[in-house]
């Protein structure tokens, strides 16, 4: 039996470009330009889009327009628009803006957690122990992120058992899925296999997603390991936008076009139209006014027939 004998028919893609990408742009992108990007992603068939963050505007000024942006976006049948929420103040803003889904986030390493949200990991868990049930009681869905699973910019190696315990805690609070983050983009395939083996010994594969930054070009290789081990949801950012402002050295997420190109050519459907997605990548580049690194974005498409 080879690695890829049991591939799925479909995979779910969770688009993070408008949030993870634009939070990291040196120049703040205006609300109208953000709307253009999100509309282009939806037009391409993206049904799960993390569009912004209801975080402190002192910390992430690039996303200070979250309330306005969310209000300007119409809810659409079959499309889930989500946003990061670090605390109850963020949840209240998300609710007021009409969101049906939010995402909570913490790190498997103490120092990154503190630098990112100004709390210890235990304090963050205590905040989410209030936030998640409140969100659920308002009929919202809550996704959870565990960051720095593959390594921390401040502490180096991270014990995957810490990430597992936090993922279990967030699931127990009511998160429907946990996205495991390689925040720095340092992970490699054998390490990914080791991490996922541990995770899957305790958590069902359909509760897990992978969020791989492509800083060192390893993201697709890690995704292949995830696919072979049963992971069916992957985060990606259009044209490779992205980073984490509180993780020095972290660059863009796995580019959505690269992921979709690989999956479609492997016979795995995503519900996304790759040509329209490529157009959305052009919109991303136009709104940030700089070249973006996605490989398919730069090289162009090859027809399935050719
Ligand atoms: P703090 O300074 O400790 O907060 O920040 P505070 O509660 O002491 O409040 C200080 C000020 O912030 C007050 O305003 C609050 O009102 C305001 P002031 O009275 O000084 O004018 N404030 C807020 N304003 C609006 N919305 C809110 C909010 N909360 C407080 N929700 C806090 C703590 C968590 C707020 C802050 O650290 C923060 O916003 N951090 C967010 C950092 C962030 O967004 N990082 C990037 C996302 S994580 C990531 O990229 C990783 C990921 O992609 C996965 C991966 O790659 O691994 C998800
Ligand atoms: Mg990220």
Quickly count the helices.
12
Shape label: globular
Q: Which percent range fits the helix content? A: 40-55%
Radius of gyration, CA atoms, in whole angstroms:
18 Å
Question: Major sheet: size, sense and barrel closure?
Answer: 6 strands, parallel
By CATH's scheme, which homologous superfamily applies?
A: Aldolase class I
The order of strands across the largest sheet is: 1-8-7-6-5-4
CATH classification, class level? Alpha Beta
Given the helix and strand composition, which structural class is it? Answer: alpha/beta
The number of E-state strands comes to 8
CATH topology, by name, is TIM Barrel
Distance between the termini: 29 Å
Strand content: 5-15%
Number of domains: 1
| Overall pLDDT | 95
What oligomeric state do these chains adopt?
A: single chain
N-to-C series of helices and strands? EHHEHEHEHHEHEHEHEHHH
Low-confidence stretches are none
Structural account:
The chain is α/β, with parallel strands linked by helices and 306 residues long. The chain has a single domain, classed as TIM Barrel, CATH 3.20.20. The protein is built from 12 helices and 8 strands. The model has no long low-confidence stretch (mean pLDDT 95). The strands form 2 sheets. It has a 6-stranded parallel beta sheet. The chain has a two-stranded parallel ribbon with strand order 2-3. The longest helix has 17 residues, at 121-137. Bound molecules: 3-hydroxy-3-methylglutaryl-coenzyme A and magnesium ion. Magnesium ion binds next to loops.
């Amino acid at each position: 039996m080879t690695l890829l004998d049991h591939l799925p028919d479909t995979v779910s893609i969770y688009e993070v470009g408008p949030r993870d990408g634009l939070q990291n742009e040196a120049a703040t992108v205006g609300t109208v330009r953000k709307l253009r990007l999100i509309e282009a992603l939806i037009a391409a068939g993206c049904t799960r889009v993390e569009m912004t963050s209801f975080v402190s505007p002192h910390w992430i000024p690039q996303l200070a327009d979250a309330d306005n942006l969310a209000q300007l976006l119409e809810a659409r049948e079959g499309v889930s628009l989500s946003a990061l929420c670090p605390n109850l103040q963020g949840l209240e803003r998300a609710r007021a803006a009409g969101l049906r889904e939010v995402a909570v986030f913490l790190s498997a390493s103490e120092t990154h957690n503190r630098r990112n949200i100004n709390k210890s990991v235990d304090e963050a868990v205590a905040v989410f122990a209030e936030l998640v049930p409140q969100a659920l009681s308002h009929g919202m869905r809550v996704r959870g992120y565990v960051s720095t699973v593959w390594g921390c910019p401040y502490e180096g190696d991270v014990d995957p058992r810490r990430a597992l315990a936090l993922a279990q805690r967030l699931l127990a609070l009511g998160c429907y899925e946990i996205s495991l983050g390689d925040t720095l983009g340092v992970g490699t395939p054998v390490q990914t296999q080791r991490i996922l083996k541990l995770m899957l010994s305790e958590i069902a594969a359909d509760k897990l997603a992978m969020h791989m930054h492509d800083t060192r070009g390893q993201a697709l290789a890690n995704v292949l390991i995830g696919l072979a081990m049963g992971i069916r949801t992957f985060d990606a950012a259009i044209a490779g936008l992205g980073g984490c402002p509180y993780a020095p050295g972290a660059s863009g997420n796995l580019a959505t076009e690269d992921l979709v190109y690989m999956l479609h050519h492997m016979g795995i459907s995503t519900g996304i139209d790759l040509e329209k997605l490529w157009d959305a990548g052009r919109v991303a580049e136009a709104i940030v006014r700089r070249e973006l690194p996605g490989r398919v974005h730069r090289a162009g498409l090859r027809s399935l027939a050719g």
